[in-house]
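Batch job 17 of 40 flagged for manual review because the log was empty.
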Amino acid sequence: MHSHNESAFNAKIDAALKRVRTILDNTRNPQSAADVPHRYDDKYLLAEFLTRVSIASLLQCLGNIGLSSEALDQLRDWAQTRSVTIRLKAQEDCRYLREETRTVDSANQIVTETRSFLGTKSKTEKIVTTVVEHFWGFDFKYALVAFQGSSDDNAITLLERSGSIEIKTGAKVTPIPKTVVRPAMDVNITWLLSHIDAESRASFVIDRTQPSCHTPRRNEQIDQALQAFEELASWCAQVRSYFLAELFPVQQDHGLDLAAIRDADIFVPVLPLLEGATGTGEQDLLPLGYMQAFLGEEQRSLTSKCLDLAKVFPRDATVITAVEAGLVVILLHASQVCRHFADGVDYIEGMLRDQLIAAIGKEVTPAEFTSYMDFHARKLVKPAYRPQPFSHAVRRPDHDPEGAVSLEVAAAGSMTDPISTLVAWSAATRPMTFALDASTRVSFLGDRFLHAWISHQFSGASPLALSLVARARQFSSFILLVGRIASMDVFEPKFGIIVQNKDVLKIPLMLEQIPTPKEFRDAIASLSPEQQRFAKAFRGMQLESTLFGVCVIQIKPQLEKLLKLPPDSLTKEIKLTQELLYLMSEYQIPSDLLSYDGPAESASVDKLGRVKEYVARMQEMIDLSKARQIEEARERESFRLAEANQTRLPPPAQSASYPSAPPSYAPMPMGGPPMFSGSAPPPRSAPARPSAAPPPPQAAVAPPPPPVAPPPESPRSATRTEQHMAPQSSSIDGDPVDYTK
């Protein structure tokens, strides 16, 4: 895919203008199209001029390869009925020729002198290497042919050549495969031949009456030309790669200057130039002399380049000759012609865009185009039918708003604004329902608004970031449900939330577009009858059940009905309203425990007082439950800490290690009994219970464990003295340790 680089192409135009002024007469004043005042129709004429020059230039390249005028007429006749293709066929063969053996003398010599009574003798020695060389014959042949249809039996040969060289190797291993038949490299030139008239002149016109014709660049004829030139440029690159990367490397040590194979000196006639004002009156902006002069200079420079290549490369049976070098240069130039054409038509489109931006003073974005449409809607549409911002206040009659719900779009570099929609309002004549669960359904009435939104977007631009925004005021709340309208009286909520106390909820919306009716008909035209029926039924479901819906439920009126209170009773009871919402949302308190259950004719104040009393009782019960849970948690923590303090003491050691040592006593931690030296301390018991008396020292055994005491009420930390007198464990080698030290 071609990408247009405007600055690089402008540099090419400036460089080409210096050469163009040497080609044309002094009476001509060629300038870049952007620098010449012209009309809109002149842009179409310039696009047609670039296309005709490109066609003529490519035919001229084929003529330099080997396409004669008679062969061109034959190809043009073929193109009227069937497609015409140019194909490169190539084949290489490698065969073994002979083996040669030669000796190679070493450059170093060894001289040995021998002295005796008879005199001095010298002997010279050198190393002689025997080299075995294998010679291979490399044969190649290729042909450029043009044929009609799919068979090349009756093809017209444009260029054909064969040759042979010898390849030398040190081992009897074939350097390349014995036979290689290259895949055919084809390019369709039917479009190129169909735009040549009977006199072999390029003919091209843009049909401006077609609905698909938008600009000199964006129309069906230019798109077809771009596709044909892109295929031709790709074929030129493929053939060029075969010669430079596959065929030429076979010939080693050729000593030829391959850098001479370039097309920088060849003139490219595809230039978006117009005739500037010369002061001699009104003149044609696109003189016919431009085309003839440009093509003549191209042919002259191409011929000159081929003559220069003939001086550098030989004309023999080897691989790299003047024929191959000239062919590669022509292919390079043809690729440049195709690239210049694509840049030229993109240059016209960019010039048109720059002129429009200069006229407006800025680049128009989708948000600004939406403002432009809103401006005209205010001027042309009656107030009852004008698009309105999607922003609705959540309020009761004769009350201040409790919040707002809006659909906002974030444009690049600007603040978010509500979208403008066409609105149809109607009062509810029958209730709609939605399901809370499988067995509970809620019916609701209220105002209903149907919105239609026209989204303005530019091709290639990022999609609009649409968001549903809900805002609540202080001490206000409402329920927001988001879902879809399944039928005339069924709403299917997907998500719900309570918006309260200055909350700002922003939900990004990712919308999906379904095909238009025409796109849908075109898509199912080739399907089976069963598939068409399924597609139509599925589309019907999409049209009926994909309507986006937002339902807003005010909480205070529903609470008043639920608690059997008069209307507007909770309007100024802010604390009571917050407590009711907290109890119902956090603890799921049934409404029967909070609603008024007295006489219906009681005063409003009495009903509110009864509800407040129920709320206070419920909060008192919740506080008691919290206190009991806290106490239970404290008891569990006390038990855990008590169990953690009952650690296992070291095992008893043998008393034979110190038979004469006097018994030494050490106080037990936590007030336990004393222990003997050479015996393990008994298990620790609770401090509140007395421990058993220790056995006599001669026993040298551990006392029996005392009964397990109940866990203490609270953990007690050891004092500094107890920590200092804590028993020590036995040593690693098993010897007892004196716990008093």
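Reviewer: the log was empty due to a logging misconfiguration, but the result itself is present. The chain has three domains: 6-279+287-358, 386-547, 563-624. Unflagging and moving on to job 18.
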